[in-house]
Amino acid sequence: MISGIDAISAPYGVKANGSIQVGKHLYYVSTRLRGRLLVFQVDGFSQELIVELEGKPFKRLPIKGLHHGLIPFQDFLRLMCQEALAEARRFHRSSAHRPVYELV
Question: Which sequence spans correspond to the domains of the chain?
Answer without folding.
Answer: 5-96
